[in-house]
Write a structure and sequence with these properties.
By secondary structure, this protein is α+β, with helices and mostly antiparallel strands. The protein has helices at residues 2-37, 102-120, and strands at residues 49-50, 57-60, 73-84, 121-132, 148-151, 157-158, 161-162, 178-188, 195-201, 206-212.
Length: 214
């Protein structure tokens, strides 16, 4: 009789333990699936951290298990966005019907090229301000014209090239340093940027920011 009783107790304990283990494993699986489905913001250009044009934002370098050192941190501001149709101005030319000097002929040729550029391109302007808030230097690649990508309302990338007229020049920035200037990009005529993707280029981890253009 005792053997039967012990046997029944063993069977009950076994089933209770098995059910409990199944519940625990099920909860672990649910948590795993939940964490895998959560998208981490800022890790790529498809899931950028959204910021507002004209407002300063803080850029932080994420910790890495591969590197044990001080982390980068900066304050970044983009202001005064302008989409301009005609960037190049015409130089004065000599009166028609009269012989022209070499300078006037050069001006006429230059005007033709300038007008051609105005007819085939549009131009994006904005101001950049960068303050290094970290205890380490930021490399010049942290913020240069290479860190910007333009997209239209359909999510299509817009080809863009920086103009040499840009006053903002990327440079290494020591701890506590600052850099600012005006940057100009040329884009195909008729394109309307809807969003700018800015990539903060830290040595270990890049952080992506989306800036909607109204």
């Amino acid at each position: 009789m005792k053997n039967v009783l012990f046997g029944l107790i063993f069977i009950v304990v076994f089933f209770v333990t098995a059910c409990s283990n199944d519940e625990i494993q099920g909860e672990k699986d649910n948590n795993k699936n939940s964490s895998e489905s959560e998208t981490k913001i800022g890790v790529d250009k498809d899931h950028p951290i959204e910021v507002t044009f004209g407002e300063s934002f803080i850029v932080n370098e994420e910790e890495s298990k591969f590197v044990d050192r001080a982390l980068g941190k900066a304050e970044v501001t983009f202001r005064n966005y302008v989409l301009e149709k005609d960037y190049y101005t015409m130089e004065p030319e000599g009166d028609d019907g009269s012989s022209r000097s070499l300078e006037e002929l050069n001006a006429a040729t230059s005007n033709g090229l300038r007008q051609e550029l105005n007819n085939s391109l549009d131009f994006v302007h904005f101001d950049i301000s960068l303050n290094n808030l970290s205890d380490i230097s930021l490399e010049s690649s942290f913020l240069s014209h290479h860190n910007f990508e333009f997209y239209n309302a359909a999510g299509k990338a817009i080809e863009a090239s920086v103009l040499s007229d840009s006053e903002f020049k990327a440079s290494e920035l020591r701890a506590g340093g600052s850099n600012s200037g005006h940057i100009i990009f040329e884009i195909p005529e008729g394109e309307i940027p809807s969003e700018i993707i800015f990539t903060a280029d830290f040595p270990i981890n890049d952080v992506y920011y989306g800036i909607p253009i109204n």
